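As agreed, record minuted below.
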Amino acid sequence: MDHSLLCIDLGGTKALVASVVRNEAQQIRQYTVPNQAGVDQVNAFIMRLIADNLTVNTTGIAIGVPSTLDIHSGTVLTTQNIPNWQHVPLKSLLERRFSLPVVVHNDANCFAFGEYLYGRHHASNLIGLCLGTGIGAGFVFNGNLYTGNHSAAGELGNLSYLDGIIEDYASGQFFQRQGIEGKWLAEQAHRGDPFALQQFETFGSHVGHALAQVVMMLNPDVIVLGGSVTHSYHYFKAALDANMQQLLGDTLAQSVRVIPSSLNHAPLLGAYGLFHHYNNKELANEV
């Protein structure tokens, strides 16, 4: 039987776990993240979900986390949406507990790298933007993942915007701040409800502003949108495009493709690819 990697996509509200064999995610399970728990409880949760999913064929663990981190030591530094989970030597904790090699990386970087490796976008310069509980981006330039110091490149959600930060307006927090549940709003929009459609239009304008800043700074070939909010992309696409066009002008706006992800479980596949990358293994036969 083929050896597998146990790959984990840890988000601010949910975690996905899968065994990945030759770039195919198998036996995918979802867990609710105890995001308000203390550091010991969050660590115990991660240990438990790994222990529950290990098999005799597991040869390593790759985990994407919603955090800034020291990539080389695999230490989680700051985590905005799991506020008590800070300064955690996650790689060493997991390697000591499970006696397997571990790679820890930022979740948006895992998403972007997964899209680059397996999304068939035919682009050397790609940005993967995750719209979920928060907003974060991963950058691939000339085929190489760019992380910056402490994997903080792409943390555009913390940039100032209006009376707060971009994350307040261009992520799921836009709806939460108004006491609106995203799934309910999407159902209402599907029925043609004017209030719901207006909410998505306003949201799309905010996301368009965020993307315009990214394009003006980095001028990528393609921006791939992922995360739970992207499931409602068709409701906010027009407003997103319109604001990007207004802010960038015709030439720059038309130079970049903005598309929702069509790749199943890109963050899990990106974690898989990054494990191979950091362990100097060849992916050429699988990409």
In short: Residues 4-106 form a domain with the Nucleotidyltransferase; domain 5 fold (CATH 3.30.420.40).
